[in-house]
Write a structure and sequence with these properties.
Number of strands: 0
Largest sheet: none
Radius of gyration: 17 Å
Oligomer: single chain
Number of helices: 7
Length: 169
Amino acid sequence: MALGLLILRLVVGLTLAAHGAQKLFGWFGGYGLKGTGGFLEQLGFVPGRRNALFAGLAELGGGLLLALGLATPLAAVLIISVMFVAIVSVHLKSGFFNHVQGYEYLLILGVVALSIVLMGPGPISLDAVLGIQDSGAAWAIGALVVAVAGGAVQLAGRRVTAPQPQKVG
């Protein structure tokens, strides 16, 4: 079980960290702060560059914390909040499945982060090495509540313009 948790944390955590690096630095085919910021402004997250910075830091930081098994509730808060915002602002309208830009993949990433808080990061983690006991149902519920509240604040600050009616004739 310890090795399974380590593999899960490394794969999911480093995948999220890479997504954050795409946003922050343009690495791995990403658009960097400027490109990601422009996209986020189209979604109503103004100023886009600042929002791209925060989203990128949440993915990079949350992913690295998850991979290391360090401060796993904080890792989950960062991951779940950014996945929640992305699901609501971009992917929800496309339905569940990823192949049509749905929210399937983002939901899985958030649930994995939450599940690791529930189970604990395992004995092969920095939390275990440091003697940090920050797992279990109370920690998972707390992380979920804080993440959703943080995401809701971010979504509430969006500047979404109403669609303009089409002129006929």
